[in-house]
């Protein structure tokens, strides 16, 4: 179980880092996403890993990743349309 939790946490840390790099443009393009929470998620895994509850982690994966992926796809589509029209 620990290896699985570590792997899931590592993947979510990478998502968090990508969200930080996207910056304000992501926040503007997908305002419904809790970007600050995503940014903080990476810090939680890096600095308080032993306090991560595997059940909470799994619920986060099940509930929150699909809306995040959908918002990212939508933002990319908007970006591509803007690029094509320019």
Distance between the termini: 50 Å
Beta-strand content? under 5%
Overall pLDDT confidence: 83
Give the assembly state of these chains: single chain
Helix content: over 70%
Number of helices: 4
Summed up, the domain count is 1
Shape: elongated
The major beta sheet can be summarized as:
none
In words, what does this structure look like?
The chain is 84% helix and 0% strand. The chain is built from four helices and no strands. It is elongated, with a radius of gyration of 15 Å. 7% of the residues are buried. The model has no long low-confidence stretch (mean pLDDT 83).
Gist?
The protein is an all-alpha fold and 86 residues long. The chain is 84% helix and 0% strand.
Topology (SSEs and partners):
Blueprint (H helix, E strand, L loop, with lengths): L1 H21 L1 H6 L5 H13 L6 H32 L1
Helix pairs in contact: 1-3, 1-4
Features:
single chain; 86 residues; mainly alpha; 4 helices; 84% helix
């Amino acid at each position: 179980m620990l290896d699985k939790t570590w792997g899931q946490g590592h993947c979510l840390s990478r998502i968090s880092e990508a969200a930080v790099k996207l910056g304000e443009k992501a926040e503007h393009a997908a305002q419904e996403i809790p970007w600050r929470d995503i940014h903080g998620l990476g810090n939680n895994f890096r600095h308080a890993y032993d306090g991560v509850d595997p059940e909470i982690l799994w619920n986060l994966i099940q509930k929150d990743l699909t809306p995040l992926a959908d918002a990212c796809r939508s933002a990319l589509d908007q970006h591509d349309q803007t690029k094509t029209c320019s």
